[in-house]
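Branched-chain amino acid ABC transporter permease
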Amino acid sequence: MTRVETGAPPAAAPASAAALLRERARWSLFDLLFWAAALAAFFVFPLRLPLLTEIAILGLFALSIDLLLGYAGIVSLGHAAFFGAGAYAAGILAQHGWGEPISGLAAAGLVAAALGFATSFLVLRGSDLTRLMVTLGVAMMVLEAANKAAWLTGGADGLNGVVMDPVFGVFEFDLFGHTAYWYALAVLFLCFLAIRRIVNAPFGLVLRGIQGNALRMSAVGAPVNRHLVAVYTLAAGFAGIAGGLLAQTTQFVSLDVLNFQRSAEGLLVLIIGGSGVLYGGLVGAVAFKLMQEWLSNITTQYWQFWLGAALVLLVLFARGGLLGLARRFLRRRPARSERGGAA
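Structure:
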């Protein structure tokens, strides 16, 4: 009998998958430059630290949306519900005497994750349009509940009396935003590492498969609903941490943290930077906030018009966001240089 060649051994596929995950998790020059620029911003723009802190918080919020949209294909119009839940959790704790920032931030993430887990079973049923309506409905219910529970949340007047203790008992929050920026940047970096680990693990590969074809992933034995519930809960938790950061650094919480505009802003930021790429939300947050600041200084009355026009142009001519545009530009440069060398 002749032996039939079957190709590579069965262990080759898992080995190649593991190599692919290791390659994706490897730090590049862009990683180092991005975080070095974030550190240098403290010294280059010492008078703009409150704005930089807002960028870090918005970037974390967009990063949590990207975990849903870019890797699991779930579009949410009500992600502000988790952002606001985290903000109120951290603010209420501080208002009642628990002003320790780290534990308050952990509580904010846990409260938001619990809300995400409780609502995930409703959100993940039906088609994409159904999910959109359910996420929006959940956010509206949470907003109205916070408005009616004025004895706890302050209602339309907002949550006052939020006093934070120094970070690690040493670094006090000051009016100039020095501690707030370092604190927000450190939390953003740690959450980024956690999300990077999640999406570059086998769990993240399954999410990408579900995004591509959920029926096929179910046919091969992947627990689709379990993975979607898990990623929805995780995304809610990270959004809650972002909300807790806002409450702790501003020491004030209002109903604005639960508005639809908050969710829309996070989606816009992700579209600007590019979804499905971890840095998309971060780059988009920088571009969105700087564009907003620049246009509002130029024209105080019509800056929203010009911001909308810029966003429309970006969507039309920069598919995949700013990072997608940068990737296409970098791919064309080697091709041009090769043609020039051949000539």
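Residues 57 and 332 are 34 Å apart (CA to CA).
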